[in-house]
């Protein structure tokens, strides 16, 4: 048996692994105590990586539909059928007749990240979709407005902060989202051990609540009002260093005007938070030298998500914790895909709108919630074919039952996936990618959100006789 170092790519934590290998067989998997990011931590996701590799249900050769049944096929046959049919639909109905859905796993693979850029250019369709509209667009939009770049996201300097205000985040379950922690429970404990505080606002008592110094319930959707009320206190009690803020930002007077009507006395009852708690936390943030505010999915997934996400950046700036040790800082990855994304997509929104409801695109993609209506409604630009890469939108997007019916009526469906799931079971062609153990990986996206600047390359550790190809090879062929 040979032991190989590897980095798990199933979530943003990027935990280091020690993997036992005998030929094409994985014999053991455990955390790597020498990994600077995860420090030996490992969670069930890493063991799921091994289970995925061994899973007999994982597709190991292409599939094509014949007589209503998916059967094994050669790559030549599968690619020929896919490209012939897609080209035919594009010639007859235009490029927008092809819908392109890019799933979350591609972000966790350098081959997948680059392959999606290639597919985006090749199909040139306005009907492009991804999971960001379910969980990330408000934060991306806020960062684009504040910093000029949707992917410029400062993250808490977790290893040096003494006070963390956390809104709608559950690192105990996520291992950190847009905050690559690695070993999150120990890092939370480290903050408390040095006398620091972690304050959580969440409508429910999550797994992370027990890791925090205090947990405050809040009415769902109340995050923006809470942050405006805290800003009201900061202005009222002159806790803002206006000279410093004005040296790096504009709009302070406009911000003060926005907060005037949001006193804790007025806001507290509306969001089910004691006004005294709002005042105390605002003061603690302003008077603690090393402090940060962090929010995640719970703040994104409500009516005021974009405003609340913007206010998180604002509070970090006006309390003097932006770009400061122990506050929020921009990681500096050794390599990332963001410059390529900016070149291809840019920091844009509203350049076109969905055909039926008129909802705006953001970073080149429409909200996934409009997929079914764009498939069902006749007319120019109606989606008649779907290319789905590493996604299962029938299970993960709103009104999945309606979407499944709509996908079932399309002229053609191509899936790049190694499972037959709720979405890909409607595919006419399925092209299975290799497992990450076979391809290796170098993260090009998630290191932008890590609490340490890391560069970790994982070479391939196994070679199989499976009839699969990596994401980049599949995309280039298409």
Quick one: how many beta strands? 20
* Strand content range: 15-25%
Uncertain runs = none
End-to-end span in angstroms? 38 Å
Main sheet?
Answer: 7 strands, mixed
Helix content: 25-40%
Strand order of the largest sheet: 5-4-18-17-16-6-7
Task: Using the alpha-carbon principal axes, give the shape.
Answer: globular
Secondary structural class: alpha/beta
Enumerate how many helices there are, as a single number: 20
Detailed description of the structure:
- The chain has 478 residues and is α/β, with parallel strands linked by helices.
- The protein has 20 helices and 20 strands.
- It has helices spanning 44-54, 75-93, 110-123, 132-135, 137-147, 171-174, 184-193, 223-236, 242-248, 252-259, 264-271, 275-287, 297-300, 305-318, 338-344, 371-376, 393-396, 400-408, 436-439, 471-477, and strands at residues 2-7, 16-22, 25-31, 63-66, 69-72, 98-102, 128-129, 155-156, 163-167, 197-201, 214-216, 291-295, 328-329, 349-353, 360-362, 385-389, 412-416, 429-431, 441-442, 457-458.
- A seven-stranded mixed β-sheet has the order 5-4-18-17-16-6-7, covered by helices on one side. Strands 11-10-9-12 form a four-stranded parallel β-sheet, with helices on both faces. It has a three-stranded antiparallel β-sheet with strand order 1-2-3, covered by helices on one side.
- Helix 3 packs parallel to helix 20 (471-477), helix 5 (137-147) packs across helix 14 (305-318) and helix 8 (223-236) packs across helix 12.
- The radius of gyration is 24 Å and the shape is globular.
């Amino acid at each position: 048996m040979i032991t190989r170092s590897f980095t798990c790519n199933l979530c943003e934590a990027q935990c280091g692994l020690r993997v036992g290998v005998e030929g094409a067989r994985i014999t053991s998997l455990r955390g790597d105590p020498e990994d600077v990011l995860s420090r030996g931590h490992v969670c069930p996701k890493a063991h799921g990586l091994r289970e995925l590799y061994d899973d007999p249900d994982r597709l190991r050769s292409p599939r094509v539909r014949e007589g209503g049944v998916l059967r094994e096929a050669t790559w030549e046959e599968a690619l020929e059928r896919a490209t012939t049919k897609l080209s035919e639909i594009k010639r007859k109905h235009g490029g927008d007749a092809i819908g392109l859905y890019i799933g979350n796993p591609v972000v966790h693979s350098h081959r997948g990240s680059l392959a999606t850029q290639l597919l985006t250019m090749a199909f040139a369709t306005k009907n492009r979709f991804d999971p960001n509209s379910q969980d990330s667009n408000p934060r991306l939009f806020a960062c684009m407005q504040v910093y000029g770049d949707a992917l410029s996201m400062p993250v808490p300097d977790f290893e040096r902060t003494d006070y963390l205000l956390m809104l709608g985040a559950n690192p105990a379950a996520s291992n950190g989202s847009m905050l690559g922690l690695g070993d999150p429970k120990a890092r939370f404990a480290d903050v408390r051990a040095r006398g620091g505080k972690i304050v959580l606002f969440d409508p429910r008592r999550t797994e992370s609540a027990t890791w925090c110094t205090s947990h405050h319930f809040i009415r769902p959707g109340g995050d923006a009002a809470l942050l405006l009320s805290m800003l009201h206190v900061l202005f009222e009690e002159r806790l803002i260093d206006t000279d410093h803020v004005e040296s790096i930002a504009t709009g302070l007077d406009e911000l003060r005007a926005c907060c005037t009507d949001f006193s804790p006395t007025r806001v507290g009852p509306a969001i089910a938070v004691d006004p005294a708690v709002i005042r105390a936390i605002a003061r603690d943030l302003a008077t603690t030298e090393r402090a940060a505010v962090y929010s995640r999915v719970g703040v994104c997934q409500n009516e005021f998500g974009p405003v609340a996400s913007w206010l998180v950046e604002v509070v970090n700036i006006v309390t003097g914790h932006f770009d400061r040790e122990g506050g929020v800082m921009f990681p500096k990855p050794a390599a990332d895909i963001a410059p390529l994304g900016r070149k291809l997509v840019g920091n844009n929104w509203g350049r076109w709108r969905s055909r039926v409801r008129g909802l705006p695109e953001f970073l080149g993609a429409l909200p996934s919630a409009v997929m079914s209506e764009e498939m069902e409604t006749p007319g120019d630009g109606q989606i008649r074919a779907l290319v789905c890469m590493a996604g299962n939108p029938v299970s993960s997007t709103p009104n999945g039952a309606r979407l499944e019916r709509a996908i079932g009526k399309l002229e053609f469906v191509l899936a790049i996936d190694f499972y037959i799931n709720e979405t890909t079971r409607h595919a006419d062609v399925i092209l299975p990618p290799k497992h990450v153990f076979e391809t290796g990986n170098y993260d090009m996206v998630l290191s932008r959100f890590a609490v340490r600047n890391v560069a970790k390359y994982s070479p391939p550790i196994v070679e199989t006789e499976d009839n699969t190809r990596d994401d980049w090879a599949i995309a280039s062929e298409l």
